[in-house]
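Morning!

This is the sequence you dropped in the shared folder:
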Amino acid sequence: MAQKRLSSANEQGDTDLVFAGFDTTTEQPKERQQQQYAIQRLQEHSDSQPMPDIDIDKDNDELVKRLLTKGVDLRLYARDIEGELHALEDEQLANYEENEGALLELDAEIRGCDEVLENMERLLANFKSSLGNINDEIQTLQSDSVSMSVRLKNRIVAEKQLGRIIQGIALSPAAIDTICNGEVNEKYLDCLVEVNKKMAYLRVHEKQHRRLRAFQETQPELERLCLKASAKVRDFLLAKINDLRSLSTNAHILQSSVFLKYRFFNHFLIERHPEAAVEVRDTYIHIMRQYYLDHFEAYQRGLLKFERPVADKADVVGMEESSKLSLFGTAKPSARDKSNVFNLGARASVLDTADPRAIVLSIAGDSNERFPFEALFRSYNLALADNATAEYEFIMQFFVSPKARQKITGSDMARMVFGHIFEPSIRVGEQFLKGYLEGSHDALGVLLCIRLVSQMASELQRRRVPVLEAYVNSANMQLWPRFQAILDGHIESIKRLAAYRAKSKIDTQPPATVRRYVEFAASMLRLNQGYNTHVVALSLARLRAEIQAYISHMAGGNPDKHTSLVFLVNSYDLILTVLHENRFTEREEEVSSWKQELAATVLEYAEVELENHFGYLKQFVIDAEQQSDIAQITSEDLGRVVSVFNAEWRSKIAAINSSIIQSFSNFRTGTEILHAVLGQLIIYYTRFHSLYDKRFARRSSSGGGTTSQQPVGVQSVMVEIKKYRNNF
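The structure's back. Tokens below.
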């Protein structure tokens, strides 16, 4: 093959072969190549044919152009060139012969290379074939990969859907074993929560996945498991509820530590086994009904042992001060302490909401302390409200499922259960109050109980415990009529007392009836602050009108006008003093009404007192001012008035001061009355001076004289009056 290649290269003459260490070609200059090309062109034409016109621009042959330009004979030139070519060929052959050995070696090497290349060619062909197979395999793998990717995505989607379903219905063997054979405890609670979730999932997705075999096979098994769990939970709850039968058991502690901890058990029964839930609820109602009844009855009996009676039937505003009549008509002194019958005093502290403590029977027994009924009633109400609040909240959490708790039916259910449990205890409280009211004549105690009931209702409303409305309404329906009846008794007693003392001689000091009234009125005003109850205000108005009639009747029975007015002023002053001590102002109708009575009476007293000491002056001024002509007043009349006044005005003022000091012990009231009397004296004396000046001014103009004595100046009288300003 190498020899064929070499002979082919030798025949063509235009192939260069390069051997290692040998140069087998002679470099031909560019010009000779062009000459050879021109000869070849010339040989194409015969000698007999003429030279064609050569289109230089067309052939673009530079060498031919140059030869033609020089005028060279192309035939000669071609033969020269041909000779040179033969010489060059001989030279190449000689060179070839000289290098024949090297060429043979080269040929052997080339043969070896051909064998190597043939092996390489076979290897490459095999490799190409392998690559083709690999390419086919890669395409097959790629196709398989795409198919697997699609299947994987489909499996992932299916796994997500089936995973949720399996997770929703599948239950671990350990949980199943715990539900069937385990002890009811916290672990059991966790397993039951899981079972309930599975049942809830089945119920929600039943329509969507009911064709699935897993649903069809799992649902009956879960229902049987729920029945097994319901039976065990029912037995557990009934056992715990039976522990409440003992009076020594603290139900609230057991409720918070056991029942509320396992309240999901009852919620599970309500949802999965309503019959068992009803049985648990009825058992709880029956036991707790008796539990609370026993405790509240015992507490009520214990409270009654510490009651301190405050008032009886004879303790009325219009009672006799000194004594009461015995069975045989003889007088016997009262054995009771009446300090709190009409005066509220410290009893108002029972309304202090800052102290939430109730009476503890054991502590009260050790201290041997006694309490008025309102304190006992408050303690009972506190115990009732606190237990009712705790029980209602427990019922809402234990017997009402979370779903029902958000609806009205949940609240109704809780109130129904609460009503069954607390109905006997509420009746105990109603009988407790009824027993007190049947023999009570303490209006302040009854009004305190009314306010306690109002506070209880407000506190229950604040706690959002709407379960004791019936108790509150029943208490109000018992308290208000009794309060009115006791007030009617007080009013009737005042009427009887007024009739009994119609002809008796009165003292100038207020009777004890007035003090009892004002203390009683002040106490009711205090209890009505912040409430402004119309019934209380109306009762006070009736009582005020009756005591006013009594005071007026007592004053009217005395023929001495002065003594009657002193009695009235002292009575009114006592009433206003007590009301002011209790910090009531004129904004209260009670204060403004009595203040008007006092002002009118003081003015009347001033007129009477002035009449007793300066009656001649007052009467003269009144008569003289009624004269149509000032000249009708005689000088003798004026002179007598001037003479008498000048002689005794200082002593009369001192007598007025002494009389007021003896009649009125209240500094403020005495000062006001003295100022009123002396003020009226100044008014009348000023009017007298005006008449005197007018009368004798006209007489002087007609030539007449004056009286023998000049009247004392008004300024002198005022200076004298100022001396008595601070006598009280």
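Headline: The mean pLDDT is 81.

More detail when I'm at my desk.
O.
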